[in-house]
Amino acid sequence: MNAFLKLMSITMQQKLYYRIGFLMNLTTPLILLGSQLLLWNSVYGGGRTAIGSMSRADMYSYLLMAFLINSLLTWSSENELSREIRSGTVTARRMRPVRFLRQSLASLCGNLVLQAVVNVVLVALAFLVFHRYLTMPSAAAWPAFLLSLALGMLVRMMLVSTFSLLCFYTTGHLGLTWTRTALTEFFSGALIPVALFPGWLMTLSYCTPFPLMLQVPVQIFLGQPLPVPLWTSFALQAAWALILWGIHEALYGHIRKVATVAGG
To answer: Which of 232, 185, 169 has the alpha carbon at shortest distance from 78?
Structure first.
């Protein structure tokens, strides 16, 4: 645990040193949030009070929480390991007396903590100032929401780490990154709530780990019904984290056997 916390601290110090990059990573999601609010405001225009099961207030609250959760890990932090693999600097990770996956998770957690502080402050201010236009969560929803959020972020970090390992088998990382980002953004509900998908697409989405990263925690936060019982959703999140852990360890075990420090 001491090594994990130390690696987290190093990552946080690096991010704070490059302040301009940190601010740029914050600005881009804010622009997307603003465009989404304007888009859905126009969709709810013309006297429409609800779309599917979501009222205007539900949607505004959903967008704010989706912004908070989806931007906890930025483009830069999610692609850090991929860039190291392609540049060869990943050798430093392989030489440290700390498990490879633990280093990856520590780096992602270091980025997440800093971004979480900023995101929580911004979203809390939005709920405080515009509460009359938003659906406010009940106090009873907070424990379940925080547990679901923690499990969802673990699933996301495991997915990022596993996808990054595929860069050992490619000559570039952008294609893999764009594929992972597109799948995550769409099927997690970051762009459109999964609850508004057609029935067949909603069913397909819940067969993947993506809604467990964002849609499910936000639904718990807003007090909306889940497709499965609450404790089942927790079990699914833990199960997907274990499945991705198994895939990651199998991939890295093969990589350790075939990868060389120089050449190939």
So the answer is: 185
CA dist 217 and 67 (Å) reads: 13
CB 196 within 8 A of CB 52: yes
Residue 263: pLDDT band by 50, 70, 90 thresholds? very low
Does residue 259 sit in helix, strand or coil?
coil
**In the predicted model, what is the mean pLDDT of residues 206-231?**
93
Query: DSSP character for 127?
Result: H
Alpha helices in 50-99 (DSSP H): 56-70, 75-78, 80-87, 91-95
In this predicted model, what pLDDT tens digit does every residue of 103-115 receive, in sequence order?
888 888 888 888 8
Contacts 24+ apart (CB under 8 A), 136-145: 136/61, 137/221, 137/222, 137/223, 138/223, 141/220, 141/221, 141/222, 141/223, 144/220, 144/230, 145/217, 145/220, 145/221
CA 114 to chain centre: 14
Distance CA 169, CA 3 (A): 29
Percent composition of the chain: helix, strand, coil (DSSP 3-state, to 5):
75, 0, 25
Q: What is the pLDDT of residue 264?
A: 42
